[in-house]
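thought: fold this chain, then report.
action: predict
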Amino acid sequence: MTDPAQKNDADDETEFSVRDWRLEATAPCFYSEEETGDTVTSIRAKSLHDLAFAVALRDSRLITESQLAFVTRNWTAFGPVKLVEHLKQLSLLSEDQASEIEKLSVRFLNEADREASSQNAKNYQDLNTRLIAALNSDGRLASILGLGGSSFIAFEQIEDRSVGSRYTLLRKIGQGGLGTVWLARDENLNRYVALKELTNGARAGDIALEHFRREAEITGRLEHPGIVPIHQFGHDEKSGKAFYVMRFLGRRTMSDAIDEFHERRQTGAEHKMLLHRLLSSFVSVCHSVGHAHSQKVIHRDLKPTNVALDEFGQVTLLDWGLSKVNDKTGLYEVAGRSEPGDLHDSSSASTGRVIGTPLYMAPEQAAGRLDEVDVSTDVYGLGGILYTILTGVGPHHATPEVTGSSIGREHFLARIVSNDVVAPKHRNSTVPAELDAICMKALSRARYQRYRSATELAEEVQRFMAGAPVHAYQAPIKSRVSHWMMRHPTLTQVLLLAVSLVIISLGAFVLTERGARVRLAASRLSSAIETTGDLEAKLESEARALERDLHFITDLPLMSAITVSQNANRHEGIETTNASDDQVEVLASSSPRPSDMPAFDHTIQTPEQWLDRQGELFDGFLNANPAYLAMVCYKQENENQLRELVRSERFSVGQQPRRFPTRLLKTTDSDSASPETRLLAQLRPGAALLGTNDQFSDDLSTNHHSPLVVSGIAAIYDPMGEFFGMNVIELDLGERLRELIPAIAPEYVNVIIADRSGDILLEYRSGRFLEVAENQTVRSRFPELTDPLNTVGSVSDADYRRSLFAKEIDLGQPYSHARFGVIAYVSQDD
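observation:
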């Protein structure tokens, strides 16, 4: 057998055997014709098997399309893992279930083999596409697995012929029981339309033609903005086929919008407006169905895929091919003509047939009692659409998860007739109780318990959206009291006035006693204010000392020498390989330094030696300042890269500093410079920026990403005045606070330090530091402080049992990156 990848384009007229899929693989071809080998063949065969397995899985009702899309987000049909193995790894299928579905998928492959064998493939690409279309005619599962889309339109789906001398067929977009739907171009008006054509030519009086005409006439009879309009009905003289023309609505349906909503919900990206839009679309569908009912037309196949949505919110109800007309005589008449052999006539030979989509079918439909099909049947279908909006699955889906075993059609229909639907709230706990009640009322097995009309169902949903009580739901007492007060505002005001008078009387009594306690609270508050002020002064002193050290190391001639030596290739005309004698002399007479900092000499010859001197300077500063954790000198290589020139650090206070020469490069994740480097590049030389380490980007390679570690950053400019990089000093402010607070605060004053988001970092109470529980916030401890970082003042007279003073301390002015909330309080027990 010849490998299809080796065939030339000249072989397009050759007939291929579809049965070659077992050896040659017939999954969609994404490869060039030059690619050959067992690997490509294996990937193609695996993709086809995965599609067959997905079709069998869906038909066995173990999983829905939306669930399949969710569980295959991290899987590809072109990878080494089969779909069945992927689902077993997720514990979504047992071994017995997988074996059963595998057998069914093999049967589907054989059926697709026979169907495609009846056609003459033009080439292997055509052969691949025919097999996919035979397995999954609507293309939804193929698209989910990455095997569908416009790249895989079969050759027979593309037409280049005219219909009725006015319409040019472009592409097949759907296939139904009676006909084929094409995308066509109206040559008279130069617009795109949808053209439905009877599958086979029929003579006048044929049942298929009469049903086709009846479908078009019923659809054309329903003139409503929410129902697809019919433009024309006719016969094509060349093919002899009947056709009718509709407005082209695109390919997006309510099912697609529901799938997107629940995928967002499952990934935590749910947005309330998405549910509101779906409910608004659902109300529009209800009104469309209500109009059809006013014309005695019952749709009988209501489901999300039969509702078209466009990008502007227009909702259109489609597919009236299974509709039924319920007039008083039981006959359907259009243009003075009664329909013989009516598919929906209870006296016809087709009585007892089950008509509709099983996942959304009303019990009377599943039981074959077509004479009972009426308005309430469509109300049940609308309830099924609402159910899918709320849960993501149809109302007759077996369980919320893909569990259980596959069942046959007969057993499935029997279950619809005998079993109640699982409540939406049991599948999705976030469903509002009102919507759950509305949905379950519409899906009642007893027809008389459902809503009397589609319009009544729409009004119930609109009441929920407006916040009004719904008739299907008995609200709790608290909600009923709230609604009662809204309905009786005058009586509510009288009752509130009476309650207010009682409260005022009690308040006057309490205030007398409370006055003394408030005065005591005021004296306590004075101590808390004084403690906060002293602590602020100490912290500001620490910040200014950090800035002075930054300016010192940045303004040293040593720093200038380093920038010159590092920029050897940046400026023309400057000799930078070695430092000049003048520079060495300047360094030798530089500003005072820590006592253990080594002196400069005239032996420095290379950039590495200058950096070694800088490292010795950093070591000296760390030894002289135990609260400093690290000192780093960075050079900006380009817009998104920083390189460490020198790093000296200790991991905790008291340890000896160490240098880490191996950290040479730090690359940002963004396409531009970090916020710190962009800001510093705009500052004047010698400017410093202070901030807590949790506020800086990861461009700064620090081991102390803590809100209690403050980093000072100073901009470095080379002698040419261009931005070179930055010096960084890390200060362990937490350790300093543990030393300062006990020395400042009296024993009856408690102190809390919070970060800029209100999380408690340190708590000093009753003379000792307490262990702070994870995620403990100032708001939970002090509800009266709405925002501790934006509050300056006391709240002592808001509650006499606690004298409290809260203030924001900003150590990083004028750039607020080092902000803390300080709360000093005295409890009554203290």
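thought: worth noting. Residues 439 and 582 are 87 Å apart (CA to CA).
final: tokens above.
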